[in-house]
Amino acid sequence: MGRRKKIAADKRKEANKSTYFAKLNNCPTSPRKMRQVADLVRGLDVYKALNILKFNTREASTRLEKLLKSAIANYESKSNQRADEGTLFVKEVMVDSAMMQKRLRTAPQGRGYRIRKRSNHVTLILDTK
To answer: How do residues 43-66 score in pLDDT, each as one tens digit?
Structure first.
């Protein structure tokens, strides 16, 4: 690794030590559906967001709830503090598209329609007030 890249990588690692986040890669839900659920919790208190996700009926909410619990656990392990009521909030939720599985659906007269099974990457970042 070159010197310039090593310096940039070290800076990034130092910044990640003080950032509390969790990532979910290749989640088999379309990015659009996941963004609709992510918009519900962006900027909210952590425990209020957990309640919203727990009682939401969408399938993506269970995956995001699990990710939020993981981010809280990461906060507790990095900062050696308990996640108290009102101190943590959801700073960012980024949903990016990931790989797409392409399948073929048979169609009339010898044709075939393409089915795109989308997936996404979700990054959830917490911060303290």
So the answer is: 999 999 999 999 999 999 999 999
Q: What is the CATH number of the domain that holds 41?
A: 3.90.470.10
In a domain, 7, yes or no: no
Counted residue by residue, the chain has a size of 129
Question: How many folded domains does the chain comprise?
Answer: 1
Q: Write out the DSSP string of 88-129.
A: EEEEEEEEEEEEEEEEEEE-STT-EEEEEEEEEEEEEEEEE-
Predicted TM-score (pTM) of the model is 0.88
The 88-106 sheet, strands edge to edge: 20-27, 112-128, 88-106
Residue 116 lies in a domain: yes
Mean pLDDT of 15-39: 94
